[in-house]
Amino acid sequence: MAEQLVLEAFVGAGSAGSVIASRLTENPNYKVLLLEAGGDENSISETPAFTLFLQQTDLNWKYKNEQVPGACLGLKEKVHFHDHSLKWIHHKLTNYLCLFSFQSCLLPRGKVLGGSSTINYLLYVRGNKRDFDGWANLGNYGWSYEEVLPYFKKSEDNENPVYARNERYHSTNGNLTISDIKFKTPLSDIFLRAGQEFGYRIGDYNAENQTAFAPLQIFARNGTRCSTSKAFLHPTIGRKNLDIAKFAHILIDAESKRAYGVRFFRNGKYHDVYARKEVILSAGAANTPQLLMLSGIGPKNELKKLGIPLIKDLPVGFNLQDHYALPLVFLTDKPITYTPSRYNTILTNMSYDIYRSGPLSVPFGIEATGFISTKYQDPKLDFPDIQLFLVSASAATDAGKFTLKLVEESKAFKEVNAKYHFVPIPMCPNAVPPSDEYLDCYMRWYTTVEHHLSGTAKMGPHDDPTAVVDPELRYHFLLILLKFNLNFRVYGISGLRVADASIMPIVTTGNTNAPVIMIGEKASDLIKNSWKNA
Ligand SMILES: Cc1cc2nc3c(=O)[nH]c(=O)nc-3n(C[C@H](O)[C@H](O)[C@H](O)COP(=O)(O)OP(=O)(O)OC[C@H]3O[C@@H](n4cnc5c(N)ncnc54)[C@H](O)[C@@H]3O)c2cc1C
Asked: Which residues bind FAD (predicted)?
């Protein structure tokens, strides 16, 4: 039998949700229940170098993708979603996005306090000014770069003294510790020098201009991961107005055609909770659309096929976006890359245990990044279309001519005899490396995705038929119902919001964790303002 609890609001506990729960409960009058399907972080998730192993653990939802033509062709395993609504979302959207799609690639998502910020690669990248101006130009008032910049700064505690002095862009007062990586192989400097040789500046890619090569800035405090759980939820311990229910699974009960609560299954029982103010969904770009569809909010024909009674026909899931990546391997005959014998030694382990530095403090060997424009983008725009990552045992590439040049023609890389390590692709026997044909084939068969799922509950103005939430992150259908049925206010139902990576109309230029945290900060203010005025 369901238990009845009465609470003011409840959210999911990922990158955005942790921020919102923490910010809302700064006001002792707001009582928040935070529901999270996963449990606590652990010592593996704390250690940056172990980040890849997390995908094999229960801290990951372990989704995989539907097969589609054109990508992930080399991955044999077919995908099985237990849940039909989720299966449909990925199937539909991978068809929609062609090259940004995948066939049976892994789709890791954090199932733990802090969500994907607890299992990600820790890279701190805000995106490009034009990303947010672009959102605003689509009709999303309040989301231009100048309007979101204060929210990036609000979260930030940047430990790099040079960056921190640039107060227009950076801050040292926020919850999230952002630090430079504490260890690098010689390849890191070689990569930066090679970038310089080709005219790129070395410097901050999160400030005035994004086009640059730079050592990584990461979400890390004292050499350990600074997830949104650590940054925003740990400091709330002791707050009486925040309850965190771990291992809970949210189901929206939408029988009465309005969002008034959540049903979740925990400890063998169903529990119903009712929100006196709002239901806030921050379940991420895969699970937020799933929960909406299970609640009857989604594409009419698909809900019909699945036998889910329709509440509102909305293009939930149609805008799924991600970045794809192409890992290319280079070889050098100099003893400078990560190998277990060089970097996984008693000494390196002790250096992490004692000083929280050394190779274990580097996320998966990623030491530096570079934002560059290919021939398809006007370099004067400072709107790069390729992000390079130097992983000190291989290198990411632009899938085109630049990284060929960077490694084989720059003096810096020549000094260490770096050479592409081309593997033959049996499926494309006539493709000669490093031709475009070879790289095209490589990308389609050995596709890697960047895990930046976003856009599945797209934010847009009221006249945008592809939008799911409005610029204040509320569902369009609630606004329409409010307009015609004032009883919603009488019953104290002020709405249903989404605040996570799902709302991005267009994915940002770079990694998505920092923008999602910004979304959480801005959503918190939008929610507080609307509650104040209610
Ligand atoms: C492997 C990996 C590497 C990445 N690397 C980087 C990187 O280096 N830098 C970067 O900027 N970005 C990176 N990203 C992307 C970034 O981490 C995400 O964009 C961001 O964390 C998404 O935040 P979110 O709030 O939308 O969702 P999430 O952080 O995924 O949060 C959703 C939360 O909701 C919970 N939830 C979902 N469904 C339910 C349910 N039914 N009931 C209860 N709880 C539920 C989940 O368990 C999860 O905790 C990476 C992502 C992954 C997966």
From this structure: 112
Going 360 to 361 to 365 to 367, the CA torsion angle's sign is negative
Q: Rounded to the nearest whole angstrom, what is the distance from the C-alpha of residue 44 to the centroid of ligand 1?
A: 17
How close is the Cα of 195 to the center of ligand 1, in Å? Answer: 31
How remote is the CA of residue 232 from the centroid of ligand 1, in Å? 15
Q: At what angle do helices 284-294 and 84-96 cross, to 10 degrees?
A: 120
Decide: 11 and 35 in contact? Cβ < 8 Å: yes
Nearest alpha carbon, ligand 1 atom 16:
513
d(CA 249, CA 411): 55
Q: Which atom of ligand 1 is nearest to the CA of 107?
A: 53
127 CA distance to ligand 1 middle (Å)? 17
Strands 327-328 and 366-372: unpaired
Q: Is 19 annotated as a binding residue?
A: no
pLDDT digits (tens, 9 = 90+) for 14-65: 999 999 999 999 999 888 888 899 999 999 999 998 888 898 899 999 888 7
Q: Where are the beta strands (DSSP E) in 301-385?
A: 312-313, 324-325, 327-328, 330-331, 366-372
452 is catalytic: yes
The best mutation among 45, 82, 120 to test binding of ligand 1, ranked by most ligand atoms within 8 Å of the C-beta, falls on: 120
318's torsion region: left (phi>0), alpha (psi -120 to 50) or beta? alpha
Catalytic residue among 91, 170, 323, 452: 452
Cα separation, 82 vs 104, in Å, equals: 15
The 10 Å CB-count burial string (b at 16+, else e) for 358-378 is: bbbbbbbbbbbbbbbbeeeee
Ligand 1, atom nearest to 51 Cα: 1
Taking alpha carbons only, the member of 10, 59, 16 closest to residue 285 is: 16
The three-state secondary structure class of 173 is coil
Of residues 283 and 416, more confidently modeled: 283
pLDDT in tens, 313-367: 889 999 999 988 877 777 778 877 776 677 778 888 889 999 999 988 999 888 9
Note whether 44 and 57 are within 8 A (CB). yes
Best mutation site among 102, 116, 280, 295 for ligand 1 pocket (most ligand atoms within 8 Å of CB): 116
Helix, strand or coil, per DSSP, at residue 200: coil
Ligand 1 centroid distance, CA of 334 (Å): 38
* Amino acid, single-letter form, for residue 355: Y
Residue pair 147/88 in contact (Cβ under 8 Å)? The answer is no
Beta bridge partners of 224: 221
Domains contained in the chain, CATH given: 3-62+108-142+227-322+451-533 (3.50.50.60), 182-215+324-448 (3.30.560.10)
Q: Structure tokens of 399?
A: 């899938």
Residue 232 to residue 500: CA distance in whole angstroms: 15
